[in-house]
Queue: 3 jobs
Job 1
Amino acid sequence: MNDYERDYWSSYFDFLDKFKGLKFMGIPAALVLPYYVLIMDRGLHKLGTPATAGRWSVPLAKEEDLQSRFEQVLRPYKKRNMKRKGKIVFYDAVLRIPQYLLRSSFPPAETLILRQKQSVNPYTAYKTKYFYSLQQVDKETKKSFIKEWNSTMDQYIDHPIYGNVHFRKKARMLLPSALMQIAAAAKFFETTEVSCLIVGTTNSSDSRSLVLAASQRGIPTICLQHGIPMLEFGYLPKVATFQAVYGERDKRWYESRGVPSVTLRMIGHPRMDDIYKRKGMSREAFCHRLSLNKKRKTILLVLHHEEMEMVDSILSELQKNAVCNIVVKRRNGRQRQSEATLALAKKYKKLTYVDDLPLHDVLRHVDAVISYDSTIVLEAMLAGKVVLLWSLNSLSRSSTNYYDSLEYYRFEKPEELVEALCLLLEDGSYKQGYHAVREKTIASLYQNRSGTSTKVLAELVRSLIL
């Protein structure tokens, strides 16, 4: 844990401490607000510098104390877990578990899907409820709470964070939705019999509200690992009863932050089972759909939504020095429309995008993947593919160095990356060396390569409810 990370967590504890009295339906609003979103806004990058030294009421001395400090905050909202009758509930926010895999271990009669809002539903076999439809807080209640919040904020006008105009504006903007989500979570458990809740994260205000509401009622909760923890801020604290992890490395990482080993389960992730079990399109159909030359090697290039300079250079080198098909995957949602992403699309008008194809179909039919440090790197390795990495500048201050064993396949210069790619695709001995490293890497990063994560999750759930 470096100075920046230590300062971040100390500032978070300070935030929870100073605003702990502002509770809505018994839960502190500060505990639900997404602190990382607030702190990463403009003008708030002074953490880990003399500007914030000694400013925190609850400083963090050692990284192994991190979870125990959060437990002190969470303890009042936790009731002893009890086995009870009710539905097994999946909150489908960042889970992305294919329905055919879910049905293999979670019968529709016993399972309920809770989705954020009504949209195209991938879980047609299951009864579904919608979280946002439960958000009902009258205007006067919200107005009164926000007034009290502003009054508390005004006490810290000279504070390096709470006095920052962007922090104050963002907090006021997110507060009404946080209040509604606390109310929606309470309403859901009042109107639904639940035996266990499974979520994909506990660091968004909606998922945090649901897990806290379940904990208040003694309902066991499981948080699946939604991606690789390149930055620890999106994966801590552990709020659910159990934290599912991909493999041994993640388990050790959580333990080093003070998370008790008995609350960690090496499950992998049900959506990764799709790599081994999916019956997707043929290579011929894949090439036909994307108008690719099926006689050429195909390279998947994964875009980041902000940092595009390296990608631009890689594309230029590929077009000059490699005879291959290039397909591109962009980030999902609004990030797909970022300024940097749109600028690249304008410059390279003939790029082939695979955003709307199932990722594991794409991985099956490409020969290599070029990516920043993303979860797709792990998925590509599980699919047996060659992977080459480039580094994000934004990870310089805080990174778990998740793919440290792949440093030999990480490049700062695009021409060296493309040269290595050509060797990996054509030189058998070079490729054999890569796959030896890949196997060793996967052994530490991922459990249940046999595609049994869904079954293992079901076994954990059964142990909690029967």
Job 2
Amino acid sequence: MHFNEYADDIHLFKPCSRTERSIASPLEQAVAALRSDPNSEGFVEKYPLPTDTAERRRWLQAALTVRPPGNLPAELVASVNQILQSELAEKPVTEASELPRLPGSFIMAESISIWEGDITTLKIDAITNAANTRLLGCFQPFHQCIDNAINCAAGPQLREDCNRIMVLQGQDEQTGTAKITRAYNLPSRFVLHTVGPIVSQGNPTQHQARQLASCYVSCLSLAAKAGVRSVALCGISTGVFGYPVRQAAEIALDAVVNWLAANPKALDHVVFNTFGEHATAVFLDAVHNRGNT
């Protein structure tokens, strides 16, 4: 499904409001909204509300993680947005434009950066999310996956947009394709959602290698069509989906460099966002090896 077929339904190009009315006690209002929300009834009944403020914040996050899309109360949106914007203001945000470019001598290296950090704190036009086929985010509270991290930092409107896309599409998202939404409370403007291949026992097939390459190509192509100029790419499928990091890095680098070479004016900057020292070292090795070939 072309993004023009769902852009209007999710107000893709409408700026996200960052200056909503001030709420005196946004956490308490969010909790109150959830406790009266029919879509959260099961969670509220099963998990009593803590008295400690920090635990209440965790309770709110867990409740939002398991809440199915639909009928999102306006007061919940307003209060959660204020909470997330306040929390973002306390985080160190990285300007993607200030990141160093690759030292490699190969073509398009000057358009690429490698950055190890929290993608939810990167100020860039668009970030990628390694999504599942439902495209609705992770429903497991505090799960350490990028899908959960992005949805928690963006807020519940992100899931609502993805749900609208899924309803319009009428079927699960195919592996190797991508969709785009607004980023809401993230410092980026957009989120590119893509579904990578699931690898069994660490032995990807040639077909899965092509699917992984397609994820990167689909994200870059969609970003360019939407007028995006800079994109951060995560290590798609290298987490719970089981793709070996070294093979994935080589595929990602090849796919991105080849796409940039074929579309030299489409994007200004691509950032490979790595998770952990090992992944960073692997990507740097892939860059070094490409520069020597």
Job 3
Amino acid sequence: MSRRIVGYDVARAAAIFGMMIINFWLVLARDYRGKGMVASFLALLMGRAAATFVMLAGIGVSLL
């Protein structure tokens, strides 16, 4: 019986959700870049969501 690591699953879900937000922002909100607090928050997420997902994928492979 395999045991799941809940924290790992939550972190992976957050990374995927972050990547979805960034991709929608890049495609749909081109006119709003650089304006306001939302744009500043999304600029912080850019790159970090993908890096977090790749890191978590590596951890998942090592746990196999």
